[in-house]
Design a protein that fits this description.
It is a single chain. This protein is an alpha/beta fold and 595 residues long. It is 56% helix and 11% strand. It contains 25 helices and twelve strands. The protein has helices at 6-30, 32-58, 66-80, 83-89, 95-98, 104-126, 131-151, 153-156, 171-189, 192-202, 204-209, 214-240, 250-263, 268-288, 305-320, 331-335, 395-402, 425-430, 448-458, 465-475, 491-503, 521-538, 549-555, 573-578, 580-587, and strands spanning 292-293, 298-299, 357-366, 369-379, 384-388, 410-415, 418-419, 433-435, 509-513, 541-545, 558-563, 566-571. It is elongated. Bound molecules: adenosine-5'-triphosphate. It is a multi-pass membrane protein.
């Protein structure tokens, strides 16, 4: 299922096809040299968008994708090289492979499936890593694959040239391959999976907290991009007719990443622009590399001019346009307004009868510091419980444990009968607990609508996702901001979007970490009315962390008080106001002044 307007996609696909056809016709008229350049461009473009599918959407730069290109090249070549040639050049091949002689299309299909298999295995392993650790792991993949290819002589001819590959990648074949890859990448970007992955790139903790299973989404992108890389590798092999392990190593990795980084990693438009630019620059510099004359001065041969030129372009992009020349939006997203589907709004009440949240002995240690110490806690649907305490008393840490953002050092907690100890936060969101964050965690470069839609799509099986999204935005008074980039909103509006996003999960329990921070008195009062209506109309239970004691006193049915990680009091606002331990630890000498 797609999450963008059909009009944008139709324009995008139309433009891709027209541009590819136009370029092919022009190259056809210009002769064989231009055709060769265009074939290499198309095949490289497939690889660039392929890396973009994973790196652009997940935000994890991959140095290892060229491995899949190599696997595609060797696999499809082994399946297509004539049996006689294999008998002469690869005498130790297993019999079934030695006698196999396929056409290009079936060979590519099998090569892609084989690559997908390897990608599933490596993706599951790498999925455990985050950020730069994941990037370094992909570098390891490149080096290991290269080593395996060199070492597996009986099948690959080791470091020698693998030749005799049928040259079947014509201009038309390369063009069709590129169009397919571009359309797949474009559709993936605005698929449900693509949107969830882009949300996780913006903020992984928040994405998980609204129900996104980040590992699963990364794996999907990894496998899809690996298959596109294999397509590129296979087409390259069948264009060159001969290649070696060196053809799929650092140099090509550098070129492809340069195209992606310079153009813009997150969009298909950026991948195309970067590929065009780097191809043109490479062609120009290749001609100049051997030395040239400016008329009054002869410039001598400078070894590595092309690489230096490309590296300078990367540096320029990093300094001046860190999101790439084309930025973070597709061209059609800039030109064509997204119209939200007209759907009936949905109730935001929990689908299933909600259970109590019960927590016992919750403890969190950070090294020698015990931030939360054996805290018991209860939250029922339909009630509002305040959690207060001086700065650093452990409120946010407790909330993080109960929402799966942090794994407790000790203690157990459950919603209804479902034990939630040690489960990831997307699992907790799927079981009816939604939250907001003290330091706002929106998906800054996604629209307000997309921010909320991600949550709706990731919970309750994604049912009526647009209806829930529109209901949540309407309830928070944010419908008119739906198309704005979330990161551009004012502080107070961002907090409202965060609450709308949490509501779209149809939670039975809602944790709010300082929701009134950054709001003026009027806005805070409006927020109070809204929170009351959530408990009254929808039966949602709210856990409210805030330093605004007026808000807490007026709104909460019960209050729990933490001090230095320990629960020092629980009771109604009236009881808490009179509690001597609270007065001493938190309220100072007089409780009245805080009412
Ligand atoms: N990831 C962490 N690593 C180490 N120490 C941490 C971490 N998170 C919190 N702490 C420490 O745990 C203690 C409790 O912090 P926490 O943020 O939960 O308090 P809080 O009551 O929410 O404070 P505030 O009202 O200022 O938000 C503090 O001493 C804090 O420095």
């Amino acid at each position: 299922m797609l999450v963008t307007s059909g009009r944008q996609l139709i324009f995008s696909v139309f433009a891709i096809v027209v541009l590819a056809l136009l370029a092919s016709v022009v190259a056809w008229y210009m002769g064989p040299a231009s055709q060769r350049i265009l074939v290499v461009f198309f095949v490289s473009l497939i690889a660039v968008v392929a890396i973009g599918v994973y790196s652009g959407n997940s935000g994890i730069l991959s140095f290892g994708h060229v491995s899949f290109m190599a696997i595609g090249a060797y696999a499809s070549s082994l399946l297509t090289v004539p049996a006689m040639m294999k008998a002469a050049t690869l005498p130790k091949l297993p019999e079934w492979l030695a006698s196999t002689e396929m056409g290009l299309l079936p060979a590519i299909v099998i090569a892609l499936l084989f690559t997908a298999l390897i990608a599933v295995v490596t993706g599951v392993i790498f999925g455990k890593l985050e950020g730069s650790a994941a990037t370094i792991a992909t570098l390891g993949l490149l080096i290991i694959t290269h080593g395996v290819i060199i070492g597996w002589r009986d099948v690959t001819r080791g470091s020698g040239s693998f030749f005799g590959v049928p040259r079947e990648t014509t201009l038309v074949v390369a063009m069709v391959g590129a169009v397919v890859a571009l359309v797949v990448a474009r559709l993936y970007r605005d698929s449900i999976s693509g949107l969830k992955l882009r949300a996780s790139r913006e903020n992984a903790i928040a994405a998980s907290a609204v129900g996104v299973n980040i590992r699963r989404e990364r794996l999907i992108a990894w496998v899809l991009s690996a298959m596109l890389m294999a397509l590129s590798g296979a087409l390259m092999a069948h264009f060159l007719g001969a290649f070696s392990p060196k053809s799929f190593y650092f140099t090509v990795t550098f070129h492809l990443l340069a195209m992606l980084i310079v153009g813009g990693m997150t969009t298909v438009t950026g991948a195309i622009a970067g590929s065009v630019l780097i191809t043109i620059v490479t062609e120009i510099l290749r001609h100049l590399e051997g030395g040239f004359s400016l008329g009054f001065i002869d410039v001598p041969q400078i070894f590595g001019t092309t690489q230096i030129g490309i590296a300078l372009l990367i540096l320029f992009a990093m300094f001046k346009k860190s999101d790439g020349l084309l930025g973070l939006k597709e061209w059609e997203e800039r030109l064509i307004k997204f119209t939200h589907p007209a759907v009936s709004q949905q109730s935001l009440g929990a689908v299933e009868p909600a259970g109590f949240l019960t927590a016992q002995g919750m403890t969190m240690r950070f090294g020698g510091l015990t931030a939360v110490d054996k805290v018991d806690f209860l939250l029922k649907p339909g009630e509002i419980v305040g959690l207060i305490g001086p700065n650093g008393s452990g409120k946010t840490t407790l909330l993080n444990m109960l929402s799966g953002v942090l794994e407790a050092s000790e203690g157990t907690f459950k919603i209804g009968d479902i034990v939630l100890d040690g489960v990831p936060s997307h699992f907790i969101a799927e079981h009816g607990i939604a939250r907001t964050f003290q330091n706002i965690r929106l998906f800054g470069h996604l629209s307000v609508y997309q921010n909320v839609l991600v949550a709706a799509l990731s919970t309750n099986g994604g049912e009526h996702a647009h209806g829930r999204t529109q209901s949540a935005l309407a309830r928070m008074g944010m419908s008119q901001f739906a198309d704005m980039e979330a990161g551009t909103l004012s502080y107070g509006d961002q907090r409202r979007v965060e609450i709308a996003r949490a509501l779209a999960c149809q939670p039975s329990l809602l944790f709010l970490d300082e929701p009134a921070a950054g709001m003026n008195r009027e806005e805070t009062d409006a927020l109070m009315d809204m929170l009351r209506s959530l408990t009254k109309d929808l039966g949602i239970g709210i856990l409210l962390v805030d330093h605004d004691l007026k808000l807490i006193n007026q709104l909460c049915d019960r209050i729990s008080v933490l001090n230095e990680g320990k629960l020092i009091a629980q009771g109604t606002p009236a009881e808490i106001r009179k509690n001597p331990a609270v007065i001493e630890a938190y309220l100072g000498t007089s409780s009245e002044q805080h009412q």
